Every structure is written in C-alpha cells, then in structure tokens.
Amino acid sequence: MKTALTNxxxxxxxRLLEPATVVVDGGLIATDPGGARVVDAGGAVLLPGLIDxxxxxxxxxxxxxxxxxxxxxxxxxxxxxxxLVDSLRAVPGLTDIRSPGAxxxxxxxxxxxxxxxxxxxxxxxxxxxxxxxxxxxxxxxDYIKVVAERPGPGALDRPTLDALxxxxxxxxxxxVAHAAAVEAYAMAQEAGADVLTHVPGDRPLDAAAxxxxxxxxxxxxxxxxxxxxxxxxxxPGVEYAPARASVxxxxxxxxxxxxxxxxxxxxxxxxxxxHGSSLHHELELLVDAGLTPLDAVRAATVLPARRFxxxxxxxxxxxxxxxxxxxxxxxLTDVRATRRVLRVWCAGVEHAAxx
Length: 355
Fold this sequence. Notes:
Helices cover 30% and strands 19% of the residues. It is an alpha/beta fold. Strands 1, 2, 3, 4, 5, 13, 14 and 15 form an eight-stranded mixed sheet that branches. A four-stranded parallel sheet has the order 9-10-11-12. Helix 4 (158-170) links the parallel strand 9 and strand 10 (175-178).
C-alpha cells in the first residue's frame, strides 16, 4: 500500500524542516503521491526509524518491543545459536537486525560464567583467532564482537586481541569491543577495535584517552542505561559518575557517540534494560552527560547508520528504507519527546505505537 504522509515536520539530520509530504511506497520512501492513501500528520515530527546500537536478542518478542517504541534497527551484540539469529533476520514488519553471532572471550573471565555460553566463543590464544573469526563469518556475522576485560587471568590478552582484530579486518568486518574499565578501554584501543561499547565504571577516561579515540577514528557506544543500572545494583567496581564523565570527555573530544542500551533478558545478569523503551532513557542520559538533544537524536539515527554501513537508512530520503517514526513533540528542543511515539513504519509496514 502506498501512503502519503502530509504535514510532517521532517528531521533532515540537522534540523526540522517545514511541513511537507513523505510518500511510503512498498518498503521504500518515494516521491509520487499519486494513488496514495493520505495520512495527515498534523505538524507532528517525523524521524528516521531509531537505531539501538547495543542489544541482545532472545526471540521475536524483542523485535516487537523495539518496533513499538520506534526502534526499527537493532545492532545485536551477541546472540546464539546461529539458527536463532537467522530466524530474527528480516522478519516482515519487525525491527531489522545486524549481529556478530557469538562473542570472543577467554576461559575464566566474567563472561565465561554466563549461562549457555557456546564452547566456540572461547579463544585460547592468538593462533585461535582466525578459527573464531572465520566461523563467525561463515555463520553470517555482520561484525565481530570481542570482550576486553581488565588485563589478568580470565581475560583475553593483548596478543590475542590483536590477532582477533587483524583477522576480522582481513575478513572485512568491523570489530566491536566490550570494555567497561579504563585498562580494558586502553587495551581495546591499542588492539585497534573500531567500536568500543560501554564506558569505564571504575574511573573516568582522561583527555588523552578520548583524544586517541578521536584521532584513530573510533566510535563509542557508552550504554549509560546499563552502567547506571549496574551501579544502582551495587556491582563491585562500577560507579555511574565515571561513566557519565567518560561520555562527556569522549563527546568533548569529538568522538562519535552512538545510542545503545544493552537491552537484554538474560537470566543472572545484574540489570536487564527493556527492549525499546530503554533507548529513550539512553537518549536522556546522553543529554544529561553533555550531548545536545540534536546530538542525541543523531546518535540514534544518522551516526549508527553511517558507522555500520547501513546506507539504506538513517535518513528520510527517496530510495531509502521506509523506516520512520512519527512523534508528538520536538525532540530537538526536549529529547523526552522521542517517548511520544504516534506511529512507526518498519520497511513500509505501518504500526501503532506501544501502549
């Protein structure tokens, strides 16, 4: 069905435009309104579908939760087995995903104690890196996820991280590194990871670390929602103030900051942000940490699309995927307006908002 959405204030990646018409034809944004069903947006704000740059998936119910809150693309950061990931790819009308499949860890670390961790996630040393990466690529991994923990027993050592990054890049894949402490952040940077997810909860990143991130062209996904939740749960070694200060340092240095929540429903995890709704909280926390509302909206639209090579989305332009979210309010003035979702389109399939 073709739909002409009239009187919509379109976000062009930098500002809101005067009310205009956006045509949805099949799964794409088009230009010809001829024969379309007309929907009057009444001056409401139209954003590209939101992107959560850090989630974990358990089933199609997560995709429905994400979609109903305006999140039309989710960057999964470790889900297995491969059959589950495959079943969640490109489900009509539901949130579209990208995934690394399983993540690379060392035996004996914190992640090794998570329930159901697949045996081939364990990387035994530099000589095992190619095996791990090749297996993920064969399964269809869109990027490679590695865990950088504080150096020491139970952590992937620097030579192994180096080898994983080199193997991933040789296979044409970005590397996303889990790093939630200052020493882990430094090791992930030195190994050449492209995207660092989380921020230190032990002490803030200093100006030099932030400058290195910017100079190397790296990207941060702070997951302040998760860091706030872990701190509130009393997880040893995690405080929220250093995490918030680290985001301020990264943003101040010009490091691209993406909105990601670590949404999950994993048994035994100390904090489980809800899929979909948590992204709106993440945007509010990013603004509290020093981003402008415009920065925060870009962190959930154009920037993740650009970083992860999603060239068909992240902007409202003819020929792009019809991933759209209609809002009652202006998020560039008050980022909390992203919560007021009126309608969502996932690849052209229209849905009412949650609630």
